[in-house]
C-alpha cells in the first residue's frame, strides 16, 4: 500500500493513499484549520476579550464550606520559636559542645507558636513535669496572621 504524507501545524502524518487516505487527509486539514481560528493562510483569527459573569459576595458559613469535621484529624507541624539568627557556613561547621548562639529576641520576651510556618500565638516558656511547654499569652488575630505571611 502506498503512503501519502500530510503536514499541518508542524505535525507530519503518514496516510494511506486512495479514497480512505484522502478522506483522512481532508479531515485532518479541516481540524487544523479550525484549531487555527478558521482562517486560511494570511487571515488572522478574531481576538476579543473574554466576558465573565460577575461574582457575588460569598459568606463563609459552615453550611457553605461543608463538613469541616473531616479536617479536624489532619496533623500540622507545630514549633515553638525562641528566636532566630543568621550564621555563616564556616561558623556552623565550627560549632562545638558548649557553644552559645545569640538569638534576636531578648530574654523574657514572648516566644512564637508557629503552626505550618505561620505564627498563630505568642506565649511564655514553662516547665511541665520534666518537659518544656508554652503558656499562651496572646492569640494572633486573623489580620495579624495575614501580616506574617
The residue ranges in which pLDDT falls below 50 over 5 or more consecutive positions are none
Q: Please give the CATH class of the largest domain.
A: Mainly Beta
- Number of strand segments: 6
Largest sheet: 4 strands, antiparallel
Overall pLDDT: 77
State the fourth-level CATH superfamily of the largest domain: SpoA-like
Report the radius of gyration as a whole number of Å: 33 Å
The ordered H/E elements are EEHHEHEEEH
Number of domain modules: 2
- What name is given to the CATH topology of the largest domain? Surface presentation of antigens (SPOA)
Tally of helical segments: 4
Q: How are the strands ordered across the major sheet?
A: 3-4-5-6
Structural class: alpha+beta
Considering DSSP H and I runs of 4 or more, what fraction of the residues is helical? 10-25%
Cα end-to-end separation: 66 Å
Amount of beta strand = 25-35%
Q: What overall geometry do the principal axes of the alpha carbons give?
A: elongated
CATH architecture of the largest domain: Roll
Amino acid at each position: 500500500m502506498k503512503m501519502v504524507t500530510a503536514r499541518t501545524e508542524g505535525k507530519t502524518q503518514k496516510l494511506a493513499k486512495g479514497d480512505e487516505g484522502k478522506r483522512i487527509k481532508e479531515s485532518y486539514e479541516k481540524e487544523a484549520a479550525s484549531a487555527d481560528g478558521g482562517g486560511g493562510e494570511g487571515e488572522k483569527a478574531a481576538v476579543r476579550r473574554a466576558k465573565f459573569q460577575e461574582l457575588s459576595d460569598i459568606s463563609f458559613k459552615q453550611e457553605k464550606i461543608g463538613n469541616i469535621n473531616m479536617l479536624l484529624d489532619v496533623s500540622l507541624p507545630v514549633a515553638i520559636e525562641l528566636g532566630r539568627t543568621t550564621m555563616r557556613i564556616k561558623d556552623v561547621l565550627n560549632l562545638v559542645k558548649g557553644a552559645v548562639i545569640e538569638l534576636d529576641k531578648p530574654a523574657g520576651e514572648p516566644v512564637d507558636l508557629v503552626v505550618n510556618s505561620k505564627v498563630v500565638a505568642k506565649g511564655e516558656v514553662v516547665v511541665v513535669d520534666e518537659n518544656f511547654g508554652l503558656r499562651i499569652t496572646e492569640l494572633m488575630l486573623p489580620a495579624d496572621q495575614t501580616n506574617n505571611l
